[in-house]
Amino acid sequence: MSAPRADPAAAETPDAFGAYPRLAPAQLQALSGHGTTEPVSKGQVLARAGEPLGSFFAVVEGKVAVDEGERDVPVQVHGPGRFVGDIGLLEGQPSFVTIAAMESGRVLAVPIPALERIVTSDPLLGDVILRAYLIRRSLAIGSGAGLRIVGSRFSPDTRRLLDFAARNRIPHRLLDLEGDHGAEVIVNRLRLDIADLPVVILSGSRVLRNPSIAEVSEILGIGRARPDAGCDLLIVGAGPAGLAATVYAASDGLSVVLSDAVATGGQAARSARIENYLGFPSGISGAELAERARLQAVKFGATVFAPAAAQALDTAGGALTVRFSDGTTVSPRAVVVASGMEYHRLAAKNLDRFEYTSVFYAATINEARECGVDPVVVVGGGNSAGQAAVFLAGTASSVHLVVRAADLGADMSRYLLVQVQEHPRIRVHLHSEVVEAAGGAGLKSVTVEHRPSGAREEIATAHLFVFIGAAPATEWLGPGIDRDGRGFLLTGARSRAGDSSSQPYETSTPGVFAVGDVRSGSVKRMSAAVGEGASVVKMVHDYLATGGCRI
């Protein structure tokens, strides 16, 4: 891509959301101690789309232009005190934009390792940069910048790529073969046939034909960190419990590997807004919370290994070895299982036909963009369902919330219940369930039955959101670890090997601990999961101090 198209006389891009703050002279001076001030000439490219940024750049004199390369997207213009990049700069991802000088001037270039130290150690300057980067990533996701995924919205392979991009908070846009002229143009230009689809395009020049998740991860710089064969602690599952355990264990000096089958954040990262988490009175998105925790974990030296699905735990000879789907094996001294839960599917007639095209298990900005103003149906009576209904009602023309219980307050927090009941575009169907789905290539409607009366109502929708609970994700552990009747892991005195001296979160297999949603008896709340993740670290220390024997 050539240097960005921009009028040198163009005004700066307004900072309407706090995404483009201007650093004060004192802040620029503080940054200068970590980098160098360099002259730039008009048209000089600082970063090209599709390539990693070599440095963090702040404008000292002149202007720079940021170009996504789309003719319908305005070029951003930034002057003295502004800085470029987004959260991907701290995660080794390629730039999704081209950045170039609009006129002769000067920029402050700071190496990425130095920037990482600033973000994780300077409470004022670091937070200004991090907060701006997180907002920019949210804006990019909302606008559909970044990757182009060309395929049919009815294709399971396309849905798999969309879900991967969404879970990893990668800006992307679907060019739908079912109705997007742009998709047709690309298919013809690249001479694609059916075996090539779906296609992933990064910055116009890098094209992956029907790629695997591993191939997409590679070009995005995701999961490049490889774990050592041995470590003190392996944590499987990077939701709130796993992230908390990682941060506290790594900060204590343990060598820690954190793995996850898809991405960091777990179910919490799928929440558009969490309003009842301690310390955030105005709320915080699950994605932002996950990004901040991941940066903390890396700051303390943890290795984040994702996407990487744990496939088996081997305890032969008393040693612990975990095998992953890519063939990697890790032999830690202890394991913390924080693999969470897998969503329950809705048992409605014909719904399996639309499982990979029209049924969603998260309500984030990605799903909201896909739904647009179309009416949506949300199934579930807990906080996840309530949060989804309120969030989607911000863009959808109507939201139908289908709840099996007779009382909305049975499983939903009071603050959410009030928001749901008072929202003019949310209609609640109590004592009801979705019993049938209908449509052709895509979902067209669902039938909702009022359980006491048997009365049925057909609701037109192409988008069904399901939040009806989940089962523990423990198949990879094999049958040797004790579980309760529902499959959750038993710990402490409740496990087969438990006695009065057992560690409260240790399973029936010595050295294997369980925290968060996967543990039997745990409180299924994010704050509780974080608490368990922090608490288990002391138990791991005690276990390791005994050389692997129960205390």
Rounded to an integer in angstroms, the radius of gyration calculated over CA atoms is: 25 Å
**Which of globular, elongated, flat, extended, rod-shaped describes the shape?**
globular
Would you tell me the structural class of the helices and strands? alpha/beta
Mean pLDDT: 91
Keywords, please?
five-stranded parallel sheet; about 25% helix; 12 helices; seven-stranded mixed sheet; alpha/beta; about 550 residues; 28 strands
Structural account:
The protein is an alpha/beta fold and 551 residues long. The chain contains twelve helices and 28 strands. The chain has helices at residues 25-32, 112-121, 125-143, 156-167, 181-190, 213-220, 240-251, 286-299, 365-371, 383-392, 414-422, 526-545; strands at residues 36-40, 45-47, 55-61, 64-67, 76-78, 98-101, 105-111, 147-151, 172-176, 199-202, 206-209, 230-236, 256-259, 303-305, 310-314, 321-324, 329-337, 341-343, 359-360, 376-379, 399-402, 426-429, 432-439, 443-450, 456-460, 464-466, 470-472, 512-514. The strands form seven sheets. Strands 12, 13, 14, 15, 16, 17 and 28 form a seven-stranded mixed β-sheet that branches. Strand 10 and strand 11 (206-209) form a beta hairpin. Helix 7 crosses helix 12 (526-545). The longest helix is centred in the last third of the chain and has 20 residues, at 526-545. The radius of gyration is 25 Å and the shape is globular. The N and C termini lie far apart (62 Å). The mean pLDDT is 91.
